[in-house]
Specification:
The protein is α+β, with helices and mostly antiparallel strands. It is built from 2 helices and 3 strands, in the order E-E-E-H-H. The chain has a 3-stranded antiparallel beta sheet. 9% of the residues are buried.
């Protein structure tokens, strides 16, 4: 009877005007190749996020969608939000 626990990237989604990347991480507990439980954790990343600690799949998606134009537009948006406060 071997019980194992592993973390998997369950879903990566790109949403919105500024290409926020939403990540669902699944924590799976297995016993003898039969799934006992699965829990989900979600987090999102904005174009100015430090992605160095993210899974390589997440980094690849971020690097693909966060073009220089997207990053510049996001920085402009943030600056405008600060001005309006």
């Amino acid at each position: 009877m071997a019980i194992t626990k592993e973390t998997q990237i369950g879903k990566i989604e790109v949403v919105g005007k500024y290409k926020s990347v939403q990540v669902r991480t699944d924590t799976v507990v297995m016993e003898d190749n039969e799934e006992l439980s699965r829990k989900y954790h979600r987090h999102s990343l904005a174009p100015d996020a430090d992605i160095s600690a993210e899974h390589s799949e997440v980094q690849a998606v971020c690097n693909a969608v966060w073009t220089d134009e997207v990053k510049a537009n996001y920085e402009t948006f943030k600056a405008e939000q600060q001005e309006n406060m």
